[in-house]
What does this fold into?
Amino acid sequence: MKISRILHAGYLLESKGTQIAFDTIFETPFSRNCHAFPKVSFDRTQIQKLKLDAVFISHFHDDHWSMDSLALLNRETPIYGFCVFEEFFSLTKKLGFKHVHSLQLNQPVQVGGFKVIPRRALDEDVDSLFQIQAEGLNVLNVVDSWIDYETLDLLAEQGPWDLIMWPFQTMREIEVLSPSRAEPASRELPPEWIEQLKVLNPKHVIPSSCQFQMEEWSWYNKAFFPITYKQFQREVVQALPSVNVVRLDPSLSVEITKERVSVSSPLPWMKLLGTEIVDYTYDPAQIIPATAEIAQRLEAASGAARSRVQAYCRDEIAERYGSLQESEDAYFKGPFLWQLSVYDHEGLTENFYYLVEQGRLTLMPQQGDEKSIGWKTEVPLVKLYAALELGESLTSMYIRINDGPFAPESDVMQDPLVRCLFDGIFAGYQKAQLKMMGIV
It folds into this structure.
């Protein structure tokens, strides 16, 4: 079996003339600001000529399910997706794919000599894992999920495992929202990962997923990624001395047999840029730039974008907040004053003040007393516009929430702006992509 790395959680597997792919992302950056790490380039013309026998998509997040990437593929390609939302399948069909199928847990799909079996992830309403069998080999693609212990027992029974693609990075998506309040990350692997790998006892492990960084100037690059490739290899080999850890960078390929793993020819439609072996750096002591400084790094918003954001903050957000189920967090029953600060590309801010009480927002006049503020949110204007119109995700918006000692100990994910933008919203990114294609 030949295994090639595309990007992030994307792989191409080949066996006896059959080619199947997983979580195909042919973009850099993807998800708006996730840049391939190490850097790569794609030959879109060659990708359009691919004749894949099937594509499997593990879940609906935009770093796994991208319309811009799928649009490059032949519309006769069968698409198999795991998703509890029917809209996943209807939106994929809008691209013109004729064979779009819903994966069911533990129900195998046969494609040529490949048998692909979706397995339950810890968050079964979102993720799935893939067990892949071909040529007598047994491969587990964990994608970027966590494994619950009931599934672990099932997988242990399915062994022995020749190869596991294991997500090696513990990302800090929530901690960067309020960095001054976040505890430093552990630079070691979670103990349950080591425990689970010992149970599964694979011959080979690929450190998988999380193959990206943000913009070169972004402070997230030294805050998001606590685990290095070196640390992953060190801990896994220490726990399993006989295991072979195989780092597989984008475009690179290996051939696996029962006896060994060997280097194979790279993908012809991707190019790895540079020869340096890169790794992640985590620095909890770095100086974190203010939101005003970050906003000045971003492009200027158009007049129409500025008007859209102002209308949203003055009128629409209160209506949207009132339509949501009231937060179960006692603090959000209020009353308290919420300050939303929106920064333009010059670092200038426009503040909006709202009374938060019993599931309602009420826009208030300009405030002069800093001590009266009970919750603070900061966001660059161009990013707020992108979230409203382009499907920008929370992890790339550079939102700053209650980043100071005054703040209550409430969950930052209960932030009014975060809830108004994302609660109950499905496939905002993919719908925006289709809209830009003129499809919806």
The CA atoms of residues 243 and 298 lie 44 Å apart. The mean pLDDT is 95.
